[in-house]
Design goal:
15% strand, single chain, 8-stranded parallel β-barrel, TIM Barrel
C-alpha cells in the first residue's frame, strides 16, 4: 500500500543529466518532482515535461525580521507565486532567512530576541495571506545549524512549529525535514506526532550523509507507519543524494514508505 504522495528533489539525483532530463526521469519512474530556486530554470521546459511538481522555493531574497528584508521577501514571494501557477505547484518553500552559497544564511544570527520573533510572526501572516489569495500553501522548513546551515534563525523544528501555530493559517504549514530534525533535535516520532496537522510536507534523507533511506541510522519504515496511523496522506519528499545509482536510491525510498 502506498498511502503517501512520493516526490523527489531533482536537484540531488541523476546529477549526470541536464536538469530537465532529471525531471523527466523522476516523472517516468512514477514520482512527483521538487525544485529549489526557479530563477535559473527554464520554466516553459519544466511545464512541458508533464511532471507533477509538489514543491518549489517560494522566495529568492529576503528575511523575516528586518524591514528591507521583509519587503524583499514579500516581493519575491509574489513573483514565486506566478511561477508556481505556471507549474501548477501547490506548495512553496521558505526558511528562517535567505540562504546563500553553500546553504549558509545571508544574514547569520547567533541569537533570536523577542522583537525578531514578533517580526517573523507578522511577516509570515502576510505570507500566508499571499498564499490564500493565490490558492497556494507556503511551507516553513526546519534546518539544522550543526552541519549544514549554521547561523540560520528559526531553524529548529520547535521554532518553525511555534511560528506556524502562532500564525494559525491553513496557507502556512510546516515542511518537516526529518534529516535536519534528526541532527538538531532527534525524537522524530514524538516530533511528528506533536506537529500533527501543522505538517504540510515531510522531507527525508538518512543520517549521516544525507542519502536515501536505508543508508544511515533513521528507521524510515517506522516513520511511515506512524504517519499512516496519524492519517497523513500528503507529500513525502526525498531531499537527499543517491548513495550510488540514482534509480536504485529512488526504489529504496519507495520501499521505505510502502506499507
Amino acid at each position: 500500500m502506498m498511502p503517501f504522495k512520493l516526490a523527489v528533489s531533482a536537484e540531488m539525483v541523476f546529477l549526470e543529466l541536464p536538469f530537465i532530463e532529471r525531471v523527466k526521469r523522476i516523472h517516468a519512474l512514477g514520482f512527483s518532482a521538487e525544485i529549489w530556486s526557479w530563477a535559473d530554470k527554464d520554466i516553459n521546459a519544466l511545464a512541458a515535461t508533464g511532471a507533477d511538481f509538489t514543491s518549489m522555493t517560494g522566495y529568492l531574497t529576503g528575511t523575516l525580521t528586518d524591514p528591507d528584508g521583509i519587503r524583499q521577501l514579500l516581493d519575491s514571494a509574489r513573483e514565486s507565486l506566478g511561477i508556481a501557477e505556471r507549474l501548477n505547484c501547490p506548495s512553496l518553500n521558505l526558511h528562517g532567512t535567505g540562504l546563500g552559497e553553500g546553504g549558509l544564511p545571508v544574514q547569520a544570527v547567533s541569537h533570536t530576541n523577542g522583537r525578531m520573533w514578533l517580526s517573523a510572526c507578522k511577516s509570515l501572516e502576510k505570507i500566508a495571506r499571499l498564499g490564500e489569495d493565490a490558492g497556494r500553501v507556503f511551507l516553513l522548513e526546519n534546518l539544522n545549524t550543526a552541519v549544514d546551515h549554521p547561523g540560520t534563525p528559526f531553524a529548529r523544528a520547535d521554532d518553525t512549529l511555534a511560528l506556524i501555530e502562532a500564525v494559525g493559517s491553513p496557507h502556512l504549514k510546516m515542511n518537516l525535514d526529518l534529516y535536519h530534525a534528526q541532527i538538531g533535535e532527534g525524537n522524530l516520532i514524538e516530533l511528528i506526532q506533536r506537529a500533527g496537522s501543522a505538517i504540510g510536507e515531510i522531507q527525508v534523507a538518512d543520517v549521516p550523509g544525507r542519502k536515501e533511506p536505508g543508508t544511515g541510522e533513521i528507521h524510515y519504515p517506522a516513520i511511515a507507519r506512524v504517519l499512516h496511523a496519524m492519517g497523513y496522506t500528503g507529500v513525502v519528499g526525498l531531499e537527499g543524494w543517491a548513495s550510488g545509482d540514482s534509480e536504485s536510491a529512488l526504489e529504496r525510498f519507495r520501499q521505505a514508505f510502502t506499507l
